[in-house]
Amino acid sequence: MQQTRAVELGTGLFVFMGILALFFLTTRVTTFDAYAGDQGYELQARFDQVGTLKVRSPVSISGVQIGRVTAIEFDSERLEAVVTMRIGAEYDQIPNDSDASILTAGILGGQYIGLQPGGAEEYFADGDEILFTQSAVVLEQLISKYLFSQAGGDE
Amino acid sequence: MEHRETGGLRRVLREVGYSLRGFLGTFGAGQLFLLRILADLPYALARPRLVIRQVYVAGVQSLVVIMLAGLFVGMVLALQGYNTLSRFGAEDTIGMVAALGLVRELGPVVTALLFAGRAGTALSSEIGLMKATDQLAGMEMMAVDPIKRVVAPRFLGGVIAVPILTLIFSAMGIFGAWLEAVVILGVDEGAFWGQMQAQVDLREDVMSGVIKSVFFGVAASLLAVFEGYNCVPTAEGVGRATTRAVVHTSLTVLVLNFMLTAWLLGGN
């Protein structure tokens, strides 16, 4: 009797672990889960082109990571991409005329947002928008620009 | 001289023919055996305790092996991935590489191979030994169908256990990859999970792994009980049946994996 109970308990636990593993695989591995209870403040920035920037991509100043991208949406009225990022609470002295650009980490690596500090004496606060932005560089556009300028120079 | 050569060729052809006939015969017998088990599944389902016991034997007792294997497979994937990807400055994609490899291929296949070694052999030798000690014949004498009572619950137990073990293996593997990449090698944690989440698709990747593992579970359990049930009832026969169960299951899983991958990728 005792052994039957142990077998049933073990099997129940086993199946429960299977469900937990499935839960882990579906929530953690495939879809993004928001940072729960993360301190800090949110900033928004508009870009013409975000390239391959992803939710949870890093946001950095001088190469130091200060936050992460929390959402990327498309504003269908102004036809621009709106990127929301969460900056760590300790980085609360960023001049509000700083500009944001989308940079590439490596040849295949993901893209991230780099902030370039400005000279204003007021700082960004929660919900502010970064006004000066520079879009991601798209390789095809770069190549076609180069080719067209070459063709123009020959004439 | 010429006569001897023709004789040799004929002998080779005869051997090939015999093995082919043997293979087809076993293949057909396996199909019939599966049909018999399927017909008896309602009986097994009506006695859930028999099945629960077999899920315990096949699943819970393989758990430690599967979890350890998953952990280290994940860690070595991350290590190898880091070594290769960092040459291109793309070590951020390590989470994605490890997760895709695990949920699509390594999880189902390695779990099935380990299952064949850990639980399949136990099944074959147990049933073989029951046959060698005339327990199966004794059941028949008492009008108890051994397929219903012994084979069907064991088969079902294996079929239930393998997909669950696969999920646990993949989850442990991803944990191992995280441990190696983020904790030991210092890859950015957000990039690790972010790239993974951006690239791994629930339906196409995770579910295709689960579908594979169901097929592998059926194949591994069927081969194990089939070899045990049809063994020569001697000590040597049981040993051979056990070996055959592992070898045949491993080959079947690898061949089946190729066919299923082609099918699942073709479907997308």
* Gap between N and C termini of chain B: 59 Å
The chain-level mean pLDDT of chain A equals 83
SSE topology string of chain B: HHHHHHHHH
Count of helix runs of chain B: 9
What distance lies between the first and last C-alpha atoms of chain A, to the nearest angstrom?
A: 95 Å
- Gyration radius of chain A (Cα, Å) is 23 Å
Beta-strand fraction estimate of chain A? 25-35%
- Quaternary structure of the protein: heterodimer
Low-confidence runs of at least 5 consecutive residues of chain A: 32-37
* Largest sheet features of chain A: 8 strands, mixed
The biggest beta sheet of chain B reads: none
Number of strands of chain A: 8
Q: Biggest interface, and residues per chain?
A: A-B, 34 and 41 residues
* Spatial sequence of strands, sheet with the most strands of chain A: 7-1-4-3-2-6-5-8
DSSP helix fraction of chain B: over 70%
SS-based structural class of chain B? mainly alpha
Summed over residues and divided by their number, the pLDDT of chain B gives a mean of 90
Can you tell me the overall shape of chain A? elongated
What can you see in these coordinates?
The complex is a heterodimer of chains A (155) and B (268). Chain A is α/β, with parallel strands linked by helices. In chain A, 29% of the residues lie in helices and 32% in strands. Chain A contains two helices and eight strands; from the N terminus they run H-E-E-E-E-E-E-E-E-H. About 4% of the residues of chain A have low confidence. In chain B, helix 2 packs parallel to helix 6, helix 3 runs antiparallel to helix 4 and helix 4 runs antiparallel to helix 9. Chain B is globular and about 65 Å long. Classes of the chains: A alpha/beta (155), B mainly alpha (268).
